[in-house]
Write a structure and sequence with these properties.
Order of helices and strands: HHHHHHHHH
Number of helices: 9
CATH topology of the largest domain: Rna Polymerase Sigma Factor, Chain: A
CATH class of the largest domain: Mainly Alpha
CATH architecture of the largest domain: Orthogonal Bundle
Largest sheet: none
Radius of gyration: 18 Å
Structural class: mainly alpha
Shape: elongated
Length: 182
């Protein structure tokens, strides 16, 4: 494995100094992965995903001084991208209408069951088809690794709603997978 020409530390220092070259390097290094995250939240709407990505990187550059080196830079950027995507969806959909409240709790099957039976491309294709609320919960829980409690706090919903929306997403994905196997 070859050594990186510019380690993250040098790129971060350049970005703190508002150096356009190092900002572009940071963007090029992480934009593709982060665009994939945005697509997960935007569904099939590429323009929305691009807007999310652009807004997120503006926040990254604006707040790069706050990155304290705890954890990976990629993880720090991922959190900003995720929060930006959710904020944009919230502002477009209206906060309370983003996710339908569910009164009952449903048993949750491990997300690994879904993930192990699908390829990455299939996951993204099927996740894009999910209703917005279920898609957001699925992304946060199965792909980003948040707990239902963390999701509930972030989206101002109940833990039960997070669990039931994830269950709904899981059921839809499993149904689509079974239909495509026929």
């Amino acid at each position: 494995m070859e050594k990186e020409l510019y380690p993250d530390e040098e790129i971060i220092n350049g970005c703190i100094k508002n150096n356009r070259h190092t900002q572009e390097m940071l963007y090029r290094k992480y934009a593709r992965k982060m665009y994939g995250i945005c697509m997960g939240y935007a569904g099939r709407n590429r323009a929305m995903a691009q807007d999310m990505l652009q807004e997120a990187f503006i926040k990254v550059f604006r707040n790069i001084k706050q990155y304290g080196g705890k954890g990976s830079l990629e993880g720090w950027i991922r959190r900003i991208v995720t929060n930006t995507a959710i904020d944009q969806l919230r502002s477009q959909s209206g906060h309370k209408n983003l996710i339908q409240e569910e009164v009952h709790e449903t048993a949750i099957v491990s997300s690994n069951e879904i993930m192990s039976s699908l390829t990455s491309k299939e996951i993204l294709t099927h996740v894009a088809r999910l209703p917005e609320g279920a898609r957001i919960i699925f992304n946060l829980y199965a792909l980003e690794g948040y707990t239902h409690k963390e999701i509930a706090e972030q989206l101002d919903i109940s833990t039960g709603t997070s669990k039931s929306q994830f269950s709904r997403a899981r059921q839809l994905l499993q149904g689509w997978l079974q239909a495509s196997e026929r």
